[in-house]
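Researcher: Go.
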Amino acid sequence: MGEETQIPQQLQEQLQRLQQLQQTLETVVAQRQQLELESMEVNRALSELEKVSEEGLVYKSVGSLLVRADKKKVVDELTERRELLTTRITVLQRQQTRADERLKELQKTIQERLRTTTSPLG
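Model: Structure:
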């Protein structure tokens, strides 16, 4: 006595795509959250640098060392980093939105297929 109902091949493939899409979405969300945290750190650093006078000493991390650096250079580097992070976050937000939409569409398609596959008349 085998299984009473078998899942059609096409539905199995859609379920696999759904699972892959969920994993992709989780990855994109995690990457975006990581970049948002880094962006917050950059903003905090820039905020602290505003409090330092032009003649004040500024150090930056290079590997496991702290080295003295020119304040303007550090501000420029951090500003550039913030702009890059903002761009990457925007791209990931778009990817997340698209993946979320595809995920919902695929879930709807699978649910419709399951209804027609398991209905007593179909």
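Model: The first strand starts at residue 58 and ends at 62.
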